[in-house]
């Protein structure tokens, strides 16, 4: 965004180092001062979030533990997505950011490099063990600091129409090779049907697939950023999907369009590589297929492996503008680790909790309505969640995502393979980092 | 100007005086433009028709039945929309009415005063002011939203009704229109005559010039009302409390609920349909003034 770029230029180099080394002692000092302030009287916090029903969860806090601690939280509902990141950065520039914000994992590095988020490692103790390592690492950015507490996670899985797989004599693919064979087999038996589609609109899906393959898109090398979007793992993923699209084995139309909804609803597309939240989407997208889907682990690159990526998921962060960082951190850890809070989050907001214990808790004991045919849905999901590969996000994920949509969109439409598109995405991301004033390792 | 008047006479042919001017052979040539206009109208109206039809569909019907086949869920959609978060939709509607109504009124008042001043008074820097104004017309308001936010943050006015109203009061386009209109509709002789009779400048403006400018100001009001009603970026940056959101922003939050929660398509579609109703009503009411305005301009020239 143009309005932050000048500031970024000045700070960029320093912040990159700070992110890398976790050298946030200044921030820690600032917040410990606030501690004393906070304990002296009632505290009022504002919280920007898009999760529906979050006000009801906050009410539980305000009437229970919050009342005791004299910390009142007011929820201000926002629209999700990149636009919210921009809004938070703008507010932070004017020192008007709310105390707490909901932020997707891939947005954390952007927020931190713009100095919007506080390091709360000093205020939050002992919650690390509540989360899977791959999730926790995304909130520390691989440093000693802690910039957010994980809220929901979105481990990816393979969804398929159980009835149609049976009808066409297809097996659930265990590897990506089998996945390609399944797609070809279906094309032969029913030429007007597709196993699935490659959506050039959904950067998050591609990032999750690359994450499963072991890609590390942003890493820190000394005090420089290293961009690995065209690394071997991602190339493998891009070539695989590019090949399927090129050979017309799967569809090349984007997801989340009325046409896609219709394809799912009528069984023109019979599988979907998605994440644990898929039942919610399918409920509205394909209402006529209730009880006909099943979930399986994502196909693997090598037989016998078990790894998955994530598509989505978010965390609760405390901003640098908060005058009561300790109180805010206290609420954030209650919200995402307390059993009562997590049960309410599942019920009111429909999230899939990042906290490991809650993934098999009472609130998720019953399979979602849409998947009543698979009673062990959440037990299976919890098993898959454990295998989430680590993700590596950088400060300009939005640029990489936009470039993905442009380059892959064109390549998918022309069915011309994805190799060149991946190079374009890498170059655009590196160029933007350099423009922002970050040092980039070759 | 005469050529402008005669081309205008063709669409106005159905009214009264134009029929004399319109020879039959010209009408046959007008078939092509008429067809082009019809095509344009279809292009503009088709999405509206889609919204109307789609709002009658239940969530189950929305993507599965034929696009222009009316559904059965309109009453339920309306009920669900009103029930969403204890009727926050109607609060958004009220907010939009407040922002657009009050904002357009204030902005029209400012435009009237400044447009009149720029048209009637001769003073040093008048042309520079007008040129700066012209530059302002070319500047899309979107890129001003962030600087305006930073300014209002300095005086602690963000996330308030005033934060959305204040930046909208000065509309370069409104002032520009008012100036052009005042220059054409308020003869300097009339102003001079007022001065001869010892009327104060304020009295000349309110009693003589303002009534002459009314049709132009109605246009300014209408433009501003529509612009504010559809405005997105400014309230998006300014407001964080969803009780203060206008309708555009509210519908956006219904769409962007995060990955776990599917977008509430049926509610958004029904909400969007209801949101254009006040605009259509306003146009129908004010259209009278508007055509009067065009006609009176044509006659004068």
UniProtKB/TrEMBL annotation, chain A:
Signal sequence, renumbered to the chain: 1-27
- Kindly state which keywords UniProt assigns to this record, in alphabetical order: Cell membrane, Lipoprotein, Membrane, Palmitate, Signal
Q: What's the protein name?
A: Extracellular solute-binding protein
Q: Which organism is it from?
A: Streptomyces himalayensis subsp. himalayensis
The keyword Lyase is assigned to this record: no
Q: Which domain of life is it from?
A: Bacteria
Q: Which Pfam families match?
A: SBP_bac_1 (PF01547)
Automatic annotation (TrEMBL), chain B:
| Location relative to the cell | Cell membrane
Tagged with keyword Secreted = no
Chief place where the protein resides: membrane
Cellular component per GO? plasma membrane
TM spans (from-to):
29-53, 97-120, 132-152, 164-187, 208-229, 263-286
- The ABC transmembrane type-1 domain extends over 93-286
Protein known as: Carbohydrate ABC transporter permease
């Amino acid at each position: 965004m143009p309005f932050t770029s000048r500031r970024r230029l000045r700070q960029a180099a320093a912040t990159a180092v700070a992110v890398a080394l976790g050298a946030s002692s200044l921030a820690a000092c600032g917040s410990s001062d606030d501690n004393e302030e906070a304990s002296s009287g009632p505290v009022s916090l504002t919280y920007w979030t898009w999760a529906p029903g979050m006000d009801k969860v906050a009410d539980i806090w305000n009437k229970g533990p919050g009342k005791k601690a004299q910390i009142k939280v007011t929820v201000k509902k926002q629209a999700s997505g990149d636009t919210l990141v921009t809004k938070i950065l703008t507010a932070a520039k004017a020192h008007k950011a709310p105390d707490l914000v909901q932020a997707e994992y891939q947005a954390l590095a952007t927020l931190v490099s713009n100095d919007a988020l506080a390091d709360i490692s000093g205020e939050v103790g002992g919650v690390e063990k509540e989360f899977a390592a791959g999730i926790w690492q995304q909130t520390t950015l691989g440093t000693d600091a802690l910039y957010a507490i994980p809220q929901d996670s979105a481990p990816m899985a393979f969804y398929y129409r159980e009835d149609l797989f049976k009808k066409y004599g297809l097996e659930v693919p265990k590897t990506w090779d089998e996945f390609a064979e399944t797609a070809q087999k279906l094309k032969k038996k029913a030429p007007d049907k597709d196993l699935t589609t490659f959506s050039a609109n959904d950067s998050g899906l591609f990032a999750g697939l690359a994450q499963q393959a072991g890609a590390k898109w942003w890493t820190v090398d000394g005090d420089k950023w290293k961009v690995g979007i065209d690394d071997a793992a991602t190339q493998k993923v891009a070539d695989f999907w590019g090949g399927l699209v090129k050979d017309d084995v799967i569809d090349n139309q984007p997801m989340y369009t009325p046409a896609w909804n219709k394809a799912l609803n009528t069984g023109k597309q019979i599988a979907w590589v998605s994440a644990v939240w898929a039942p919610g989407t399918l409920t509205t997208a394909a209402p006529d297929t209730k009880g006909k889907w099943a979930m399986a682990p994502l196909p693997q690159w090598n037989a016998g492996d078990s790894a998955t990526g994530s598509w989505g998921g978010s965390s609760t962060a405390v901003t640098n503008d908060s005058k009561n960082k300790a109180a805010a951190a206290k609420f954030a850890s209650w919200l995402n680790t307390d059993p009562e809070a997590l049960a309410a989050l599942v019920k009111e907001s429909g999230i899939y909790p990042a906290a490991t214990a809650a993934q098999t808790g009472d609130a998720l004991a019953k399979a979602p309505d849409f998947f009543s045919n698979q009673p062990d849905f959440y037990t299976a999901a919890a098993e898959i969640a454990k295998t989430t590969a680590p993700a590596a996000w950088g400060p300009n994920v939005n640029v990489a995502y936009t470039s993905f949509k442009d380059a892959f969109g064109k390549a998918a439409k022309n069915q011309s393979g994805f190799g060149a598109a991946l190079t374009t995405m890498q170059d655009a991301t590196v160029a933007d980092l350099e423009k922002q004033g970050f040092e980039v390792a070759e | 100007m005469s050529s402008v008047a005669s081309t205008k006479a063709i669409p106005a042919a159905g009214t009264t005086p134009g029929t004399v001017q319109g020879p039959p052979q010209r009408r046959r040539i007008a078939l092509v433009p008429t067809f082009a206009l019809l095509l344009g109208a279809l292009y503009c109206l088709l999405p509206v028709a889609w919204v109307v039809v789609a709002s009658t569909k239940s969530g189950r019907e929305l993507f599965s039945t034929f696009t222009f086949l009316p559904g059965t869920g309109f009453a339920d959609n309306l009920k669900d929309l009103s029930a969403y978060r204890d009727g926050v939709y109607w609060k958004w509607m009220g907010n939009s009415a407040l922002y657009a109504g009050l904002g357009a009124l204030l902005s029209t008042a400012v435009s009237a005063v400044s447009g009149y001043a720029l048209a009637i008074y001769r003073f040093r820097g008048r042309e520079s002011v007008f040129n700066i104004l012209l530059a302002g017309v070319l500047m899309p308001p979107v890129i001003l939203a962030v600087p305006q936010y930073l300014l209002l943050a300095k005086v602690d006015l963000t996330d308030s009704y005033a934060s959305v109203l204040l930046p909208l009061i000065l509309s370069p386009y409104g002032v520009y229109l008012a100036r052009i209109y005042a220059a054409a509709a308020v003869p300097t002789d009339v102003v001079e005559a007022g001065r001869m009779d010892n009327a104060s400048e304020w009295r000349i403006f309110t009693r003589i010039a303002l009534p002459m400018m009314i049709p132009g100001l109605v246009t300014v009001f209408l433009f501003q009302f529509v612009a504010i009603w559809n405005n997105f970026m400014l309230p998006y940056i300014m407001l964080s409390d969803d009780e203060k959101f206008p309708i555009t922003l509210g519908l956006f939050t219904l769409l962007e609920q995060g990955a776990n929660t599917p977008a509430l398509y049926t509610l958004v579609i029904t909400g969007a349909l209801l949101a254009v109703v006040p605009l259509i009503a306003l146009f129908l009411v004010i259209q009278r003034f508007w055509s009067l305005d065009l006609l009176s301009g044509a006659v004068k020239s």
